[in-house]
Input
Amino acid sequence: MKGVRHYPGFLGIAVACLVVLYAPLVVVTIYSFNDSPSITTWGGFSWRWYADVFTGPEAERFGAAAWNSVTIAVLAATASTAIAVAAALAMIRGGRFRGKSATYALINLPLLVPEIVTAVATLIFFSAIGLTTGYLTILIAHITFCIPFAYLPIAARLSGIEEVYEQAARDLYATRAQAFRLVLLPLLMPGVISGYLLAFIISLDDFIITNFVKGAGMETLPTAIFGSVKQGIKPNIMAISTLMLAVSVLFVSLSYLVNRIGQKTRA
Amino acid sequence: MSTAIDISSVVKRYGTATALHGVSMEIRDNEFFTLLGPSGCGKTTLLRCIAGFEDVTGGEIRLFGRNIAALEPNQRPVNTVFQQYALFPHMSVIDNVAFGLKMKGVALAERRAVAGRMLEMVHLSDFADRMPAQLSGGQQQRVALARALAPAPKVLLLDEPLSALDLKLRQAMRVELKTLQEQTGITFVFVTHDQEEALTMSDRIAVMSQGRVQQIGTARDIYESPHNRFVADFIGETNLIEVDVTAVSGGMADVVLPGGHRLRCPAETTATGRHHLSIRPERLSLTGTGELTGTVERVVYLGTDLQLLARLADGTPFTVRLQNSARTQVPEAGATVGLHLEEGAARLLAD
Ligand SMILES: Nc1ncnc2c1ncn2[C@@H]1O[C@H](COP(=O)(O)OP(=O)(O)OP(=O)(O)O)[C@@H](O)[C@H]1O
Ligand SMILES: [Mg+2]
Output
């Protein structure tokens, strides 16, 4: 069979896609090092906008927002990963139980529902139960939509681990908990780390849902950036965006690498 | 001798499929006991019921007199050598071997010492710090054995542990396993579908087929006195010849062979009518006129032996084994030969 590469027009379409996807990112990254305050004309290389992010007039606002973003991402990734591990165990090791298909759909629903719908629904839910919007509501929302992202790599890894390892542990006098902690969890680790990193970055980058449930005066980095942009795009926004891009790329690469290493040590 | 495992009328169903149809057997203490049968007959299922990975649907398993139905796998004094070995890939060889002792709360120094001794026993002392992935199949198999023996279980379950090894290693491991069993005095329950393996290693063998026990006995019992057609056919080579049974009494039957010759032989059935006679190929010899007469179709040279493929007048195929010596007169293909049945060579089988 011919490889996809040999079809006519493959190269052209591929290049067009890459340009459309990545050109804006490249422009933003380059102009974040622009010495000129203009966002369209190049005035030489400089770190000044990076300095501005950390020391400029908006530094305090960005600092507080970054702190919220990171703490929420850590907590949300931790909680959603823990839930995802439990869910994967139930789905893959739990045998057959009633409502299994429904459970599977429920776990992955956030991937399918348009984010704006989730955002509106979540806000309505919080106001219906009388929960004041703020840090806590953001956290709860993030945990919820991070679960499927944590679940996928964990479930993929778990279905590749034969049950015989846990049985061997149980046979050698390990309790259920010991078999999980000493044998299954270490084997599952690449999936867990990969899922954690994905959940972390999804939480860190989220804008739409966060914007709906954050409440007044509460900002995460994406909402803070959006707030700044509304007053006009300044080069410091490009610097902070580039920083976020770097963190995202780093985490996604890490997640990928961990998965690859995990495949080599396949149980 | 006392009973190690008492299995009575064990039934195991998976949904509508039945893997074990009321299996009963008594496995004695210090015994090398083998479950032998073709693929899918329920050997692994029975082993998993003993180890505690499956609940029985019916019946009872007693371990040294104690009903183990309510015990979790970690509460049963039974260890398993898994068919896929299942060494923990993230632990070194020595940590794998020491795992059971660690779970039993044995102190570090002692469990290292015991694990070291176990590795010595399976000739792998130099490999203690390797990871399982760095071992050959045969070495992994021996680590799995050492790991299962380290906590000194009362019973060791082995699920086709030699099937992944090449012939030479398999033959060497048979001897090692047998020696190990005799040294440790641990009851071995060994699963295999290889009859040669079963015959050479076991004190007793349970032949299984389709979730049922067909016969239990020593290698000699099941080879020389097969109970039914399945056992006679599955163990070794045999000639199954359909005969008319005219009378049965006291475990002996009067039968009429094809060709009209009458014979009295041991019987596994009490019914008259059409039944099968089993005659091992090496218990037949050539004569001018014998109890049976047939036509030679082919002679196969096997080195130490010659195999004669022939047919009776009614078309029933049969085989004769002759020792390959200078004195052996080898008939040509197409020749008509008479066959003599040695004393006690024929056995009337249950269906
Ligand atoms: N989890 C299961 N669900 C449904 N059927 C099963 C299950 N495990 C085993 N069986 C069925 O039970 C029967 C016995 O299986 P078992 O694994 O005990 O065979 P075996 O004698 O060990 O065969 P082999 O020599 O191939 O390992 C088979 O027909 C098999 O399909
Ligand atoms: Mg099996």
